[in-house]
Amino acid sequence: MTAVYEPWDETRGAEIIAEHSKQEGATLVILHALQEAFGYVPAAAIPMVAQALNLSRAEVHGVFTFYHDFRHRPAGRHVLKLCRAEACQAAGGDALAARAEAKLGVSLGHTTADDRVTLEPIYCLGLCATAPSAMLDGRLVGRLDEKRIDALVAEAQR
Amino acid sequence: MSIRLYVSRDAGALAVGADEVALALEQAAAKRGIAVEIVRTGSRGLYWLEPLVEVATPQGRIAFGPVTETDVPSLLDALASNTPHLLRLGATDEIPWLKRQTRLTFARCGVIDPRSLDDYRAHGGYKGLERALSLGSEAILNEVTASGLRGRGGAGFPTGIKWKTVAQAKADRKFIVCNADEGDSGTFADRMIMEGDPFLVIEGMTTAGLTVGATKGYIYIRSEYPHAVEAMNAAIQAAKRDGYLGANIGGSTHSFDLEVRVGAGAYVCGEETSLLESLEGRRGLVRAKPPLPAHRGLFGKPTVINNVLSFAAIPFILAEGAKAYADFGMGRSRGTMPIQLAGNIRRGGLFETAFGVTLGELVDDIGGGTFTGRPVRAVQVGGPLGAYFPRALFDTPFDYEAFAARDGLIGHGGIVVFDDRVDMRKQARFAMEFCAIESCGKCTPCRIGSTRGVETIEKIINGERVSENLALVEDLCNTMKFGSLCALGGFTPYPVLSALKHFREDFVPAPTTLQAAE
Ligand SMILES: Cc1cc2nc3c(=O)[nH]c(=O)nc-3n(C[C@H](O)[C@H](O)[C@H](O)COP(=O)(O)O)c2cc1C
Ligand code: SF4
Ligand code: FES
């Protein structure tokens, strides 16, 4: 299932920020909420967050860039995350990642030219006893093999 | 008569089709006019048998697995007519892999409905808190200390001492923080318990709160665990509704509230001070210690920060007494450890047992070797900062000190198995690469050293001035070991140096190959 995001809208952004800004240490909570709504954290939102939390723009930008999760632009229509950590490596994950890269024509960390699929590495999904593992738009898949990875890639390309 | 079935909704089971199986069971039952009730539990932790389907009988639960959608019709027919089925495993509790375990922390996981507070209480839940409320702070501290419980997050620091420090600190506010960042590859015990027995974590944290005088707690869960986030949030709501969170816990004068916060994909945020920075809404830069979080932690206030499994061990200790816990284990490692068997392993999953079991027993005997059927060559114990062990060290008992004596660590209890096709140069390079990706950037040896490490190991892989570069890597490791503020930079040398030491043949080309190349 593809996630459906709203287009960036300043009023809506301000609403989301206001909803969470009273919590202690709200920066990550707000960045998460923005990304959940818009699919990424628009650059225009950073100064708004800073103002709401009485922080400098640089501080909020610093937080935003520190964490791997936050995107500065929308991802492809589907996001396929492949676990690249040790347990999945031990179970044959390297070859499967290479296979997905070849099929999609992009390397991990990139989006296909048609904007359909973003392929990303992830470091452990906690499914290490049924490795190798992946996540397609929030859905977990374990015990990956060539057949399953091909099916996932095909599904992501649709 | 209705048939009661149990199917896990644990993320590990979902990843191999548990939802599809549950749905198929429902549909096939409706088609046959059989009344079924499907209870969605956590996982028993026998992952090679997931999706596991259990059926309630007067003699206890009977297990079937691994079940696929296509097995469902025949399974239902067998159940309805009481005839044998190929996937029948017998009584769940009698499955040897489960029977051999000592499940103190994971006693209820996979058994109860994690969304039902009634189910939790019916299986002994909140007995520990009840006793804690009657004991009072000082007596609780004595129990926790006497149990010998050491932090399960990796460092193995005595939990009783940590709690006592916070209890004695004077402040207007104190906090309880649960470290659910579980970033180590090969570990999933925190995830399982949050999904399968979330009230246990709440009970443990609530006990900590009333012991040290804290009224607010946070559970910091990594964003890679959306199912755990959902399960914990649901449990917190249920506990609030029934008066187990909020004002006057269990009719006492104590109040305690809990909130879930979600991480954002930074491994270093599992380090306790980085986690606190992140909770405060900042970059996850590691803080210098002292001050300890116990003195100045979250928002500058005295804070107990413990791993999920540390909190989850508390209710048993209080309900059954410190001695019942401390009777298990060896040396200074008391009680049980939920060990996680992962990677290329035939029988992977959660194995809770008393400290002292050897690495060889765990990998060969319990784990059954590799699922590829090839020989086990290396195992990494304790996550990405843990050492690689060769078969020659398989007699090492699972114990904090025994692993340290062999330049390793047990960490959070994860064991990742590799077969004989592993290239240890690649594993060493990955250790450095991971450190480079995840470094918080505060200290040079970690930030720059790890990148140099990747480059140097790359050269070794390419056969460039191998012995010179090997010496360079060793040198670099020493600099990282002694010049890093936290264990990310400080312990990355463990996997690298252990690979170099125990698997030297992968790094130094055999002389015969050199001659052949001439
Ligand atoms: C890089 C790094 C990552 C860590 N990740 C975790 C983690 O994911 N979970 C955890 O409980 N402890 C983790 N720790 C250990 C914590 O710093 C800390 O020791 C622990 O939360 C204390 O709780 P405990 O005493 O109950 O183990 C990590 C440490 C380092 C240096
Ligand atoms: S060792 Fe690395 S992760 Fe730890 S404080 Fe230093 S730079 Fe940050
Ligand atoms: S290492 Fe891939 S899921 Fe844990």
Quick structural summary:
The complex is a heterodimer of chains A (158) and B (518). Chain A is an alpha+beta fold and 158 residues long.
Describe the structure.
The complex is a heterodimer of chains A (158) and B (518). Chain A is of the alpha+beta class. Chain A has seven helices and five strands; from the N terminus they run ααααβααββββα. Chain A has helices at residues 10-20, 27-38, 45-53, 57-66, 86-90, 93-104, 146-157, and strands at 78-83, 110-111, 117-122, 134-136, 139-141. In chain A, strands 2-3-1-4-5 form a five-stranded mixed β-sheet. With 518 residues, chain B is an alpha/beta fold. Chain B has 22 helices and 16 strands. A five-stranded mixed β-sheet of chain B has the order 2-1-3-4-5, covered by helices on one side. Chain B has a five-stranded mixed β-sheet with strand order 13-12-16-14-15. Chain B has a four-stranded parallel β-sheet with strand order 8-7-6-9, with helices on both faces. In chain B, helix 17 packs antiparallel against helix 18. Classes of the chains: A alpha+beta (158), B alpha/beta (518). Residues 83, 85-88, 124-128, 131, 133 of chain A line the site of FE2/S2 (inorganic) cluster.
